[in-house]
Amino acid sequence: MRNDSPQENSPPENEGPLKDLRVLELGQLIAGPFCGQLLGDMGAEVIKIEPPGVGDAMREWGRGIAVWWSVIARNKKSVTLNLRDARGQELLKKLVERADVLIENFRPGTMEKWGLGPDELLALNPGLVYVRVSGFGQTGPYAQRAGYGSVGEAMGGLRYLAGDPDRPPTRAGLSIGDSLAATFACVGALAALHERSTSGLGQVVDSAIYEAVLAMMESTIPEYTEAGLIRERSGAILPKTAPSNVYPTRGSEMIVMGANQDSVFRRLAQAMEQPELADDERFKDHVARGEHQQELDDLIGAWSRTLEADDLLAVLAREGVPAGRIFRAPDMLEDPQYQARNSVIDVEHPEFQNLKMQNVFPRLSRTQGTVRWPGPALGAHSEEVYRELLGLTAEELADLRDDSVV
């Protein structure tokens, strides 16, 4: 755990639950850095290691304007370091001696090639939690393959199920595979840190993108092995789960509604002023509704399209039927639930003034994490880390900069 006294010019600290941890993030793009974001959101000191002069490619990513960096690198300190240089590798080792967690998502074997693999670094710091995120994990015949999130989504089974049944597999408009692998990496890191509290020893956390996706695939494997069933694309519905779909309103807006539980369906029938539907043989229980899914959806759609969206949602809320609008960013900013819980916050930014982004989740009652600052400029904290944490002199740091080591 961290044991250095805070410096006067250090960035602001918070009372997050991980405030006593120091994390070295060597990752790039999403799969590693999102893990670092999660840890930083909960108060950990995250030192982001970036190549001198160029930095993480995420600095340039974004649609229309490059603001993604401000989110995924929030709460992190940026330090430049050339890990391909022997002197850079030695500096990293010194940082490792003072760290609790290291995150990397290079292709397997890269860290070993630089002399920075788990064997070397755990020898220097036996308590280090060494987090590795990759496409296929650190072992197996595919380990050395390049593995992007899209490939992990495909091989983990998600892509096959995404989309409409009469069209080829599609994707969500987000990097789900990368983010899932990073989230599982974060869970693994926290589990390893908890175990370290009794053993005193660190260990390697191996998070593979395809396995992170596989973990979310519900019962698709035993459905096949025990019943010979292969799930297919089903569009907006889950087959045999009804009613749960997107339904029309009197205007152009669609709403999502779920009432597949028996008691909830009875409340929906009441809302529709057709209470007899709950006792109809076709719809009386989960199995029956699944067998008559399309017929039931047609009945609900015929009713829902007689009401404006606001009126429809009010009726459903009154009867306790889960339903909601399909939100885009403007809807989120205007929604009273988002506003009441401060789900989207303003963060001071040198370029964008108050930059809006999602808050820290989940919420903790005593030690809530915070967004202390947005993604920093390249190397913004190099001076602080190298001089104050490692004790380098101004002359030593200048020499390293001249040689493009930092």
How would you explain this protein's 3D organization?
The chain is α/β, with parallel strands linked by helices. The protein folds into 2 domains: 22-216 and 344-402, 3-Layer(aba) Sandwich (Rossmann fold), CATH 3.40.50; 244-327, formyl-coa transferase, domain 3, CATH 3.30.1540.10. Helices cover 37% and strands 14% of the residues. It is built from 18 helices and 11 strands. The strands form 3 sheets. It has a 6-stranded parallel β-sheet, sandwiched between helices. β2, α2 and β3 (76-80) form a beta-alpha-beta unit. α1 crosses α8 (176-199) and α11 crosses α14 (309-319). The longest helix has 24 residues, at 176-199. The protein is elongated and about 85 Å long. The two termini are 25 Å apart.
Q: What is the topology, as strand order, of the major beta sheet?
A: 3-2-1-4-5-6
Q: For the terminal residues, how far apart are their CA atoms?
A: 25 Å
Helix content range:
25-40%
| Number of separate domains | 2
Structural class: alpha/beta
Q: Characterize the overall form.
A: elongated
CATH-level-4 superfamily name of the largest domain: Crotonobetainyl-coa:carnitine coa-transferase, domain 1
Percentage of β-strand residues: 5-15%
SSE run: EHEHEHEHHEHHHEHHEEHHHHEHHEEHH
Gyration radius over CA: 25 Å
Number of helices: 18
CATH class of the largest domain: Alpha Beta
Tell me what the CATH architecture of the largest domain is.
3-Layer(aba) Sandwich
Number of strands: 11
Major sheet description: 6 strands, parallel
